[in-house]
Amino acid sequence: MRLLRSACLVAEKGDQLLLGRVRQNEHWYLPGGKIEEGESPQQALQRKLMEELGISVDPKSVRYLYTVHGPAYDRPRDVELVCFSAQWKNSPCPLGEISDVQWLHRREQAKFAPAVVTSEIYTPGHTQNASDFMAKRTLESHGAFFLPYLKSGLSVLDCGCGPGSITMGIAVRIAPGEVVGIDFAQSQIERAKTAAAQGGVRNVRFDTGDVYSLPVDNGTFDRVFSHALMEHLADPVAALRELCRILRPGGVIGVCSPDWGGFMLSPPSPELTRAVDAYMALQSKNGGDVRVGRKLGLHLSAAGFEAVRISARYECYPSLEFIGEYLASQLEREGDARSAVVFRDWSQEKEGMFAQAWVSAVGVKSQ
Ligand SMILES: C[S@@+](CC[C@H](N)C(=O)[O-])C[C@H]1O[C@@H](n2cnc3c(N)ncnc32)[C@H](O)[C@@H]1O
Questions:
Q1: Residue nearest to atom 25 of ligand 1 (CA)
Q2: Domain harbouring 60, CATH code
Q3: For the chain, N or C: smaller number of CB within 10 Å?
Q4: What is the tally of structural domains in the chain?
């Protein structure tokens, strides 16, 4: 599926957002614009802000915030907004096709373009740290619960595949069958394609797509797998219904997500508890559910799956540094420097522990 990718500036003053609009248009957009072929999102942001608002941002101040996926007018959900904060000196003035620039209060949401008003933001973002963190996972380490359902010759979809390390493990298992990895972030799909080419894995394809509206025909796959996606979704049951649609009758789905109610962190401290609470509040504010693990079975049943089976396990991280930085950098981006310091200090503890509870659920599509 072709996504429209834009680099956008998120500039906030209290409850106001800086927005611009094209003449005659009833909707207001985040400043920025299309990322051209061969251009980085940061370069596109700087170019568009100069062309459309006449502002020259300080390149050192450009900081990635998050990526939002939302609807375009004529299509359900296929605009990708790579969002940044930045600093500039001169006042914005509308140029080119932009007729107005204004600070609008969030309560004026009815005037915002659909992709600006989104109830779902992918909390980790697609930074190098977050992507490297996911790329350490393998089918054996994180998808073992689904191994009994993977056999040679099957067709499989891995939804929310990220950098594709688990997807490639599936490819090895089901060869000569084919696995398709789908993710709404083009950066992840590009990384996954490179890894597959480097690893010489031929029976894998990667494509961009949104779990709520997949570019796939009904009943296409024998198996559907999705790891660490449901906790980021505002409507996991709608997503599971869509996954049910593309599964063949009698096909099997396997989903796995953490449940923050079961995490164990050590050494405990009131500061660490507050920092964990801040992270959970951030993910909830972004539309996710930090306790989705325990609900996976219920969600599969609500989406129409049968014979649902649930299991759970703990993952104990060998070193705290990666997970500490992963959590700290996300909170820092949101302006919570205090919690970021707590996570970074804690991650230096030699005898510390981070044990993450993962819940897996398997279900069958009725014949
Ligand atoms: C936490 S990562 C998990 C990646 C991989 N499955 C793993 O476990 O290592 C979640 C992935 O889901 C993708 N994602 C989030 N929301 C999505 C959506 N609505 N549709 C498709 N992919 C989505 C993100 O871009 C991200 O790469």
A1: 185
A2: 3.90.79.10
A3: C
A4: 2
What is the rounded CA–CA span in Å between residue 120 and residue 244?
A: 21
Determine the straight-line distance between the first and last CA of the chain, rounded to whole angstroms: 29
Whether 170 and 316 share a structural domain: yes
Determine, yes or no, domain membership for 122.
no
Which tokens hold the place of 322?
């990666």
Q: For every residue of 18-62, which 3-state class applies, written as one string?
A: EEEEECCCCCEECCEEECCCCCCHHHHHHHHHHHHHCCCECHHHC
Q: Is residue 282 part of a domain?
A: yes
Neighbours of 309 (CB within 10 A): 13
Same domain for 163 and 59: no
Domain-terminating residue out of 94, 117, 140 = 117
**In testing the pocket of ligand 1, which one of 5, 189, 229 has its CB within 8 Å of the most ligand atoms?**
229
- Residue 5, strand partner residues: 80
* CB contact at 8 A, 169 and 139: yes
The verdict on the CB of residue 332 being under 6 Å from ligand 1 is: no
Q: Indicate whether 123 belongs to any domain.
A: no
E strands within 51-198? Answer: 63-70, 79-85, 98-105, 156-159, 179-183
Per residue in 211-259, pLDDT tens? 988 989 999 999 999 999 999 999 999 999 999 999 999 999 999 999 9
Residues 111 and 218 in one domain: no
Give the side-chain half-sphere CA count within 13 A for 266.
8
Angle at 267 between CA 265 and CA 270, to 5 degrees: 85
- ∠117-121-348 over CA atoms, to 5°? 150
Are 285 and 146 contained in the same domain? yes
Global pTM value: 0.81
Tell me if 161 is assigned to some domain: yes
User: Which of these three, 92, 117, 142, is where a domain ends?
Assistant: 117
165 and 237 housed in the same domain: yes
Integer Cα distance of 113 and 68 in angstroms: 13
Q: Residue 17 — left, alpha, or beta (φ > 0 → left; ψ -120 to 50 → alpha)? A: beta
Q: What is the pLDDT of residues 134-193, one digit of tens each?
A: 999 999 999 999 999 999 999 999 999 999 999 999 999 999 999 999 998 888 999 999
Q: Which atom of ligand 1 is nearest to the CA of 69?
A: 19
